[in-house]
Every structure is written in C-alpha cells, then in structure tokens.
Design the sequence.
C-alpha cells in the first residue's frame, strides 16, 4: 500500500500521506508525493490540490533515520523545486506537529490551513542542523527575518494561534480539518486566488539584525554550530536571490549533517526515546491507574515535585510535619508560581487552576486515597524508614510508594514496606519542576508493572525517564562524584579553583564543578559523605570541601564557598590556602597542571565510571548514561554525552591517557572498566 494516495473531490485533488508513526518524509513518501503531484498538476479536472496526512500528525520532518546513509532521489529540495513549478493552488492541511521538513513542505504550498491545536516548527538546531529544504529561505520571506530567526534558532514549535497572527497560517479549522480545508480551497478557486509562491517574495530584515542576533544567542548557543549557521542562512536569504540562497543553505546543511555535533545530537534524539524501552515491558504490561498523588516533605524538592504533577492536572496532597509547615509549603509553591508568572512563563489562571488541585496536610490519613506517594523528606535513612512505617498504616496494596532519595539504598528502604514490590525510586533533579531528567530506580523487588507505570507517569509530567539499578548515587550522582573527585584532587595538586572551573566551562559544561557546588551548597555532599567509609571515597579529594563547610563557608547561600560572593564572584583565597594545607597533610605533590590534564582527568573519570555502570547492569545501555549526564548535569549536547564522546574521541586514546594518570595517581581510581578495555580492543581491530 503506497504511503501516498490521492483522490479527486469537486475538482480538488486530495493527496494523503500515511507513513506511521509521524509521517516522516522518508524516500517512499517523497517519491509518492512527487509522482502524485506530477499526475494531478497535469490533470485538467483538478483546479487545486490539498496535501493532508493520516494518523496523529502532519509530517514531523525528514526521516532522521536516513541521515548518514546515501541520499535517495528525490531529496526534499528536489521535491520542493518541483512543487514550486505547480501552477494550481496548493493547500496544506496541518494537524499535530508539522516540524522540520514537514513544515517546509507546507511553506512550499501556497496556503496553509491549521487545526487549532496544531503546531509548526523548525527543530533542526536540536539535531545540530539547519532547515535543509528551503526553510531558511522561504520562512523569512513569509514572516520577516526576525521572527524566522526566533523560530529557526530557537528550535521550538509555535501554536496555530501564533502561526495565524504572524502570517504562517491562512485559516484555522475548529471542527473538521479536511472539510474546512476543502471549503477554504473551494473559495480560493471561486475567488480565482493566485498561487502564492514564497520564493517570489522579498525578505524584510532590519539593519544590524544578524549581528545583533549573533550576540543575542551567544550565551545560550555557546559551543553549538547550527544556530550560527542558521543566522548565516537567513542572512543569505536577505542578500542573495532565492536560488542562490537555497544553494547556500544546502551547502551549510551538508556541512552540518556530517559534523560530529549533529551526529552527537541525533544520537541523543534516539537515545532519549530508547531509554524508555525496558526488557519485559511492552503494551501488555499492566499499568496502574494513577489519579491522586501525594508528596511527603514540603522542602525545595518536595514542592518542585508537586508542581510537576499540579501542572499536569493531578490532584496533589502535600504532607508536612505540622499544619504550619504544611501551610508554609503551600505558600512556597505559590511563590514559585508567582516567579514563573513574572517570567511570563505562565498565566495567573494557570497558577490558580494548579493551586486548586493542591491540598496541604499534616495527617497521614489524608494520603489513604493516593495512588502514588513520593517521599522527599530529609536524606536520612531512619527518617525515611519512619515514613514507610507510617505509610504502611494508611495505604493498601495498590499504592505505589516512591522515594526521591539521591544516595540511600532503596532496597533497604523497601524492606520496611508492607508491599516492597510497590516501592521504587523517582529521583528528580533540582529544580525538580524544571530539570527534564527523572531517574527511575528499580529495587530488587520492584514490580514490573510499577516500573511501567513510572515510565508512563514520567512522560505525562514531561520528564525524560531513565531506569537505573540500585547503587550509591544511581547513575548521575555516582558519575558526578567521580568527576568531582578529580576536580578536588586537582585542587590539592595545585590547579587554581577558577582555572579548573574555566576548563570545564570551556569544555561545554554549563558551569565548573566548584561553581556548581557553591550554587547547590557544599554541605549537601559533605553530609552525604559522612555516611561513607574511607574505602568508598577519596577523603583527600573532598578535604577542602569539608574544611570550608566546617568554617561555615557553604557556598553562595552563605556568601562564600569556593568563591566569595560580595557583589561580584571572586575565588576565595581561603581555598588556595586550604588546598596547600591539605596537600601537605595528605602528602599530595603540588605541580603545574595543564588545561588538557584538568579536562581529561575530570571527563575521563566520568567516562570510566559510566562504562562501569553499564557493565554492572545499573544502566541498561551506554546511551542511557549519555541521556542521564546531558539532561541531568548539562554535559554538552553537541558532544552527545560522555560515552558517545568517548567513542568520537577514541577508546584507545582514553585508555592510554588513563594509564598515564594511573602512573601519577595510582590505579585506585584509574583501573579501566572492562567494557572500555573491550571497546578499545574492538576499535584497534577495526582500524587494522
Ligand atoms: N524521523 C524518524 N523517526 C522519527 C522522527 C523523524 N523525524 N520523529 C519521530 N520519530 C520516531 C521516534 O524515533 C519514535 O520512534 C516515534 O517516531 C515516536 O516519536 C530537511 C533536515 C514528532 C514531536 O526534529 O520531535 O526535517 O521509538 O516518541 O513524543 O529541514 O517525535 O517509536 O521507534 O518522539 O509523540 C526535523 C523530531 C527532522 C522532529 C512526536 N523533525 N520528532 O513526539 O513521539 S530534520 C524533528 C519529534 C528535518 C529538514 C530537516 C517527536 C514528535 P520509536 P516520539 P512523541
């Protein structure tokens, strides 16, 4: 059955694309469209043409799985050049999300009818690309260069309402998209409306727009190639002819599609979707019906977690130790909403409808009707066990009990539950209502249906889930502690704190290790390590941290930590003194350290631990580790995550450098993971 079919109704040809799951513009679709369009444009019984899609969405873009393979004609640019020759009115009927090449297909049409809930967008920058089928040339001709840059460099879809306001949509359908598009097209024919080819229009661009735009995105797009290439392409649209501009765009696209950055970002696109594919879970796995949610603990995390559910329509009961504390927690949530409204990210109505779903309580009996209870109390095993004990008295065998613990052993927590099979870890990242990652930690006894329910819930609150086994720190924090260990040792070895941070920032991390510790609070890690034995972590590496906290310098919240925060942010001189003192105490040799060593010691520690996590079965696959570290700690997406980056850099090289580090550091932390050794061997065999 062809993925593209057509029929004629009242001298209008209706071409239908049917290529599940998202009508990606695969070769079969492009060929089918080309054939159908050639046929109808010559057919005298056809006065106008509608392009529509079956299924849940209009074309969601080029078929990303075809990238990197030999191109098969007709490519999208060829198809669109053919469409530009059509003399009959071409109308796109858009529902769902017309993205990338799908949106570009609509721009090749002369008119666009959108369903009121539909969206259009050019997300190519999220894949390390720019629109490659004329989008950078047609869109600015339709809506002006400024609006076009916002859509292309931002990579975010816009609503049908906005699309209509800025001139992308010509008509919004309220009831039946096809019927209303046919009616709209009949009117076009009656009124003798012309074909409206965007290639014939000029681009409106203010002076200095492109120079100013480069400055505007400099911080957010730091290190990425595609957003700046997009600016060049739109600038070309304002300076060159249409055909020259399309040629310019094509060259830029070809450069990017074969770049390591785009390969890395496409890797993450598929990895984030693969992470939800869990052995033993399929469409037949029983999913529990979660309607009511309870959160225990109204601290920063508890409130953030509650907001995720409130924003997605779940009634939430927030339990605290007293009525006053419960009221204070409710006020905390309201304050978070108010600051979100101030940033223009939500309306007063949205806040009110979310707040209407919130009940604050200090009585465990109020949780008895909850289907999911998430504890976010103080990070102390005894306190968490007490919570489980209390829950045993008020919940039944249907309630899922989740813990937000970052480090504690969830198997141990589950032991105290009346139904251990219902216990799972839901590890959110602070700020919990903003960070997209959710680690779903399965215990030895977690029921498969509970895991499947958690996966579905994650998506319903807009999170990207990754399943982890139980170990100290699960995936993200376990890797982060290794990265932090090397940064701490480098400090003792003589590397200044701001140089370590700048090196990691220049690598692409959102901020250096010590800046991040100051922001989160140095005391959190210090308290967590107090429960560890000296075998479990390197005391030397965190000795400066402990000394700072002991002297009350806990980070930004106390005005001083690794940096001083008195107006501007400057390195805390006390840190340099403490580093020397601790180096002396632990007999750590001080020396000049290269930027390269700083970067590789920290990043390779991440990589080695990541492979250990996979080989131990804590993570199901290497790409899960990449998803965790890019979404959880901002590892630069244009490097694809620590393990994808390792592959691009070369496993053999990493192993060689780790051996050199072992010579100076000892092999306590630099013994290579078996998986890394195996991958290096395979790499050498491939390169023979
Ligand atoms: N190509 C191939 N497969 C795709 C795909 C695509 N464009 N989009 C989605 N899939 C698969 C996805 O891997 C998953 O597969 C299934 O469809 C459901 O996706 C020339 C060069 C459309 C908003 O970047 O944003 O056009 O895991 O789980 O949550 O200028 O998919 O089931 O096997 O994400 O409902 C530009 C990418 C391409 C859009 C739907 N387009 N897709 O979200 O479902 S480049 C994009 C999405 C381009 C042109 C350029 C989302 C979605 P599986 P899903 P969803």
Sequence:
């Amino acid at each position: 059955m062809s993925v593209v079919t057509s029929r004629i109704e009242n001298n209008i040809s209706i071409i239908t694309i049917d290529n599940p799951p998202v009508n990606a513009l695969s070769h079969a679709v492009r060929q089918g469209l080309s054939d159908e369009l050639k046929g109808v444009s010559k057919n005298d019984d056809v006065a106008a043409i509608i392009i529509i899609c079956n299924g849940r969405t209009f074309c969601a873009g080029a078929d990303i799985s075809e990238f990197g393979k030999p191109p098969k004609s007709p490519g999208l640019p060829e198809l669109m050049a053919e469409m530009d020759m059509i003399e009959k009115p071409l109308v796109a009927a858009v529902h769902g999300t017309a993205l990338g090449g799908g949106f570009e297909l609509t721009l090749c049409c002369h008119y666009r009818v959108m369903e009121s809930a539909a969206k259009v967008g050019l997300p190519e920058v999220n894949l390390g690309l720019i629109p490659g089928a004329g989008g950078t040339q047609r869109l600015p001709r339709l809506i002006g260069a400024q609006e076009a840059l916002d859509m292309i460099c931002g990579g975010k879809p816009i609503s049908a309402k906005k699309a209509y306001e800025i001139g992308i949509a010509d008509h919004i359908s309220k009831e039946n998209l096809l019927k209303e598009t046919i009616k709209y097209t009949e009117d076009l024919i009656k009124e003798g409306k012309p074909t409206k080819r965007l290639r014939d229009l000029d681009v409106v661009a203010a002076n200095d727009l492109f120079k100013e735009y480069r400055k505007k995105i400099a911080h957010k797009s730091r290190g990425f190639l595609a957003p700046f290439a997009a600016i060049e392409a739109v600038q070309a649209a304002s300076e060159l002819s249409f055909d020259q501009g399309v040629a310019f765009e094509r060259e830029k696209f070809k450069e990017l599609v074969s770049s390591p950055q785009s390969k890395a970002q496409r890797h993450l696109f598929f990895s984030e979707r693969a992470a939800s594919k869990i052995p033993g879970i399929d469409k037949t796995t029983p999913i529990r019906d979660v309607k009511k949610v309870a959160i225990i603990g109204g601290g920063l995390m508890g409130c953030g977690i509650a907001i995720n559910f409130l924003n997605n329509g779940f009634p939430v009961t927030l339990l605290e130790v007293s009525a006053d504390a419960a009221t204070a927690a409710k006020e905390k949530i309201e304050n978070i909403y108010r600051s979100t409204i101030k940033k223009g990210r939500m309306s007063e109505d949205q806040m009110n409808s979310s707040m209407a779903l919130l009940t604050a309580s200090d009585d465990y009996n109020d949780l008895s009707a909850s289907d999911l209870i998430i504890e976010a109390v103080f990070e102390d095993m005894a306190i968490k066990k007490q919570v489980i004990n209390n829950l045993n008295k008020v919940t039944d065998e249907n309630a899922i009990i989740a813990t937000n613990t970052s480090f504690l052993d969830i198997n141990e927590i589950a032991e105290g539950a009346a139904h251990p099979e219902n216990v799972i870890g839901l590890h959110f990242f602070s700020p919990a209502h903003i960070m997209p990652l959710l680690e779903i930690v399965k215990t030895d006894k977690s029921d498969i249906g509970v895991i499947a329910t958690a996966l579905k819930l994650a998506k319903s609150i807009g999170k990207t889930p990754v399943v982890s086994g139980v170990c100290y720190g699960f995936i993200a924090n376990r890797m982060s502690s290794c990265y932090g260990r090397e940064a701490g040792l480098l400090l003792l070895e003589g590397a200044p704190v701001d140089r370590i941070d700048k090196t990691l920032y220049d690598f692409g991390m959102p901020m250096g290790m010590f800046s991040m510790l100051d922001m989160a609070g140095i005391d959190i890690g210090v308290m967590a390590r107090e429960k560890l034995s000296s075998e479990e972590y390197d005391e030397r590496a965190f000795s400066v941290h402990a000394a700072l906290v002991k002297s009350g310098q806990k980070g930004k919240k106390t005005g001083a930590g690794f940096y001083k925060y008195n107006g501007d942010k400057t390195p805390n001189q006390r840190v340099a003194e403490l580093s020397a003192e601790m180096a002396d105490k632990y007999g750590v040799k001080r020396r000049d350290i290269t930027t390269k060593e700083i970067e590789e010691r920290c990043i390779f520690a991440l990589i080695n631990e990541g492979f250990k996590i996979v080989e131990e079965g804590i993570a199901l696959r290497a790409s899960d580790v990449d998803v965790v570290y890019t979404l959880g700690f901002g590892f630069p997406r244009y490097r694809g995550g620590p393990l994808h980056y390792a592959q691009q850099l070369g496993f053999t090289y990493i192993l060689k450098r780790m051996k050199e580090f072992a010579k100076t550091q000892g092999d306590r932390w630099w013994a290579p993971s078996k998986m890394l050794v195996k991958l290096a061997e395979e790499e050498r065999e491939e390169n023979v």
In short: The pocket of (2S,3S)-3-hydroxy-2-methylbutanoyl-COA is lined by residues 21-22, 24, 60-65, 76, 97, 99-101, 104, 123-124, 127, 129, 131-133, 135, 270, 273 (CB under 6 Å). The radius of gyration is 28 Å. The CA atoms of residues 277 and 455 lie 9 Å apart.
